[in-house]
Design goal:
There is one protein chain. It is built from five helices and no strands. It is mainly α. It has one domain (20-86). It is elongated. The chain starts with 6 loop residues before the first helix and ends with a helix.
Length: 87
């Protein structure tokens, strides 16, 4: 029993390996990515009227998704939207 450690240490180790809410992270990747063609249509309709739409709107949309990924401590979610934003 001494080799196993305390129950709290075992629980924190299990939470680090097994994340029961992982499906939500993948939904937060797939659902916004599904709406990308509509977002491009919105960009194309707003760009002639407003010159500031180009990058600022894209950053305003992606930063909350990156923040959610950081808050949830989800590496796939954070890295996916970070690479999309940088690209």
């Amino acid at each position: 029993m001494n080799e196993l450690g305390s129950p709290k240490a075992m629980a924190s180790g299990l939470k680090a390996v097994y994340r029961p809410d992982r499906f939500i992270d993948y939904l937060l990747i797939l659902i916004p990515y599904f709406f990308y063609p509509y977002l491009n249509l919105l960009y194309n309709s707003l760009t002639p009227k407003y010159s500031w739409v180009d990058v600022r709107l894209d950053v305003a949309i992606h930063l909350p998704l990156i923040a959610i990924g950081l808050w949830r401590k989800s590496a796939p979610l954070t890295l996916f939207w970070t690479t999309i934003l940088v690209a």
